[in-house]
Design a protein that fits this description.
mainly alpha; 35 helices; Serine Threonine Protein Phosphatase 5, Tetratricopeptide repeat; TPR-like_helical_dom_sf; 604 residues; elongated
């Protein structure tokens, strides 16, 4: 046999593809795909569904250099190489039996070369034929006793059969042959965890991270362990150290941002996100991440251009459309949200989070039959999901079946008692069911038990503002601003509160500052304009409100305010605008006010 050093891209790619099966099996022991998923609950469904760190993991995983070296040593004209090439092609085409026969034939030509056996074992592993994997790896070990891959594959097969003692032995042997091997090491760490030996797992992963600084896989497993163990500071420290050693890798920075988000450290998340954006301003993952952070912070005017840019940078990325749809939902731009989420589903028709969002948006726009159809489909495969009773509750609200909605939201809270979104939905349903004291009580009780909560405080303050309970609302707004200084939606509502209290000069000063910082935010523009209208500055108000309507064409409140600003200066335009609002069959809270104003103008 002629042996020589040579590169061969196609065969190498085949080995790389096969080796990833081993990585995938390791993750199914089971593990969270990324530590970020674990710590950002309950934001999982509302942020990155295709987390960018997954790309980093795949790019940096080890690809069995020993097997690759053996392939590279084979002459391009050798019979073994030709058979391996054909086998890989057959396996990739789904011709499992034919591919395996060729691998067996290639291996029988020289049992001292384990590469064919490794690929054969991988094919059985992919098919979850674990006994067959063990048969092949035993044979590899007989002819090639120093094959690290054989012991790693045997360990995964044994672990998949729940035989953790044998799995531990195999992985330890692999590490003995190749110390600090990432694949064998991370798998062994998971066996230690299964055997309740977390400290041994931690020590091993720390060593692997130290000796594999460019490989994200060991770090990912270490972060999982630290976060699940409640050692958040250790996770942050490990990430910061890794970032310092890999300053050009943005994936680690994204992971750090998500850990801060999940631990309710929004100022640190914002600071790290901004720093990452400065270093990687054209990276789609980073742009999307920054948009999501601003969205979660309530800074919608900053989130919107970033998320829209992320869609332009990566139009094929499901999460980009998904997150932009979420923003439109928060901005109550339901039509835009539906359009965006439909793009996500066109890219991935089976994407469950997008289906839930679409159902919510359809329910919000009164398309209840379509929402129910999606709900029926989702129930078949997600019966235990907390989002099922939540969605049922939203649909019941749309049907004015508030008592039924309350029952659904309570059911959802039983599944996820620490979800503030569900608490707010329950409160809304109770209030709609004419049980206001109970609804407000739910929110106040939550705040009393969660001193660092932000979302429920904002919601309760908004509701109190709507009831003209200005002092209590102002108290909660102030608390939020202490937790999140500069939060624009709160500053915007605070400006309106001051105007309702009759403090117009203070209100205008604050509203103008808000407008100057976010001139493209339709809600901020609307507030500033409406306060100006209260001050008698109708012409300036109308000018601003026209801008706001162009920014949020679905927002009925802004259109109503524009009509108000046109009274006495352009009654005909005001009446036409009001008629169009009443012609909209959707229910909106200003409908009665619109009808009253139109009647008044018609009588003049």
């Amino acid at each position: 046999m002629n042996l020589k050093k040579n590169t061969y891209a196609e065969v190498g790619a085949g080995v790389k593809a096969m080796s990833r099966v081993i990585k995938a099996m390791a993750f199914s022991l089971p593990l969270v795909a990324s530590p970020c998923y674990a710590v950002t609950t309950p934001f999982v469904m509302d942020t990155f569904d295709i987390l960018s760190t997954n790309n980093g993991i795949g790019a940096s995983s080890s690809d069995y250099p020993y097997a690759g070296d053996l392939l590279n040593e084979l002459s391009e004209s050798s019979a073994i190489r030709n058979l391996l090439e054909q086998a890989i092609s057959d396996l990739a085409a789904g011709k499992q039996q034919l591919g395996r026969e060729k691998l067996k034939q290639a291996w029988s030509m020289d049992y001292s070369l384990p590469v064919a056996g490794i690929l054969l074992a991988n094919s059985h592993l992919k098919a979850k034929e674990f006994d067959a994997v063990l048969d092949v790896t035993q044979k590899i070990q007989t002819y090639s006793p120093r094959s690290v891959e054989a012991y790693t594959l045997a360990g995964i097969a044994n672990a998949s059969k729940q035989d953790f003692i044998k799995a531990r032995s195999s992985f330890e042997k692999a590490l003995e042959l190749r110390p600090n091997d990432a694949e064998a090491g991370v798998n062994l760490s998971q066996i230690y965890i299964e055997l309740k030996q977390d400290n041994k797992a931690r020590e091993l992963l720390v060593d692997l991270v130290s000796n594999n600084p460019d490989n994200y896989v060991p770090l990912n497993y270490l972060l999982n362990l630290e976060i699940k163990s409640g050692h958040l500071e250790n996770a942050v420290s490990a990430l910061e150290s890794s970032i310092s050693k890999n300053p050009g890798d943005f994936h680690r920075r994204i992971a750090l941002v998500q850990i801060y988000l999940g631990s309710n450290q929004m100022p640190k998340a914002l600071a790290t996100s901004a720093e990452t954006m400065n270093k990687f301003p054209e990276q789609p993952d980073v742009v999307e991440m920054a948009g999501v952070v601003y969205m979660l912070n309530g800074s919608f005017e900053k989130a919107q251009p970033l998320l829209e840019s992320a869609v332009k940078l990566s139009p094929e990325r499901v999460s980009a459309h998904y997150n932009l749809a979420l923003l439109y939902e928060k901005l109550k731009q339901s039509k835009s949200g539906i359009s965006e989420i439909e793009k996500a589903l066109k890219l991935n028709p089976s994407h469950v989070p997008s289906k839930f969002v679409l159902a919510r948006l359809l329910a919000a726009t009164g398309q209840l039959d379509l929402a129910r159809n999606i709900l029926k489909e989702l129930e078949l495969s997600n019966a235990g999901s907390v989002q099922i009773p939540e969605l049922k509750g939203r649909i019941a609200v749309g049907q004015n079946k508030f008592e039924e909605a309350v029952a659904h939201f309570k059911s959802a809270l039983n599944k996820q008692p620490d979800n503030p979104q569900l608490v707010m939905q329950l409160a809304f349903a109770l209030i709609a069911d004419k049980k206001s004291d109970a609804g407000y009580g739910v929110l106040r009780d939550w705040i009393g038990k969660h001193p660092n909560d932000i979302s429920v405080r904002v919601t309760l303050a908004d509701m109190l503002l709507g009831k003209s309970q200005f002092d209590e609302a102002e108290k909660y707004y102030t608390q939020v601003l202490e937790l999140q200084p500069g939060r624009l939606d709160v500053l915007n509502n605070l400006a309106w509160l001051l105007s309702e209290k009759g403090e117009l000069n203070k209100a205008i000063d604050l509203a103008e500052k808000n407008y100057n910082s976010a001139p493209k935010n339709p809600l901020v523009v609307d507030t500033f304009a409406t306060i100006l209208l209260k001050k008698g500055m109708a012409e300036k108000a109308a000018e601003l409100l026209r801008d706001a309507v162009s920014l949020a064409p679905d927002n009925t409140a802004i259109k109503y305010h524009l009509a108000q600003s046109l009274v006495d200066t352009n009654n005909d335009e005001a009446k036409e605008l009001l008629k169009k609002l009443l012609a909209d069959h959707r229910d909106f809270k200003e409908r009665e006010l619109v009808a009253q104003l139109l009647k008044k103008l018609a009588s003049q």
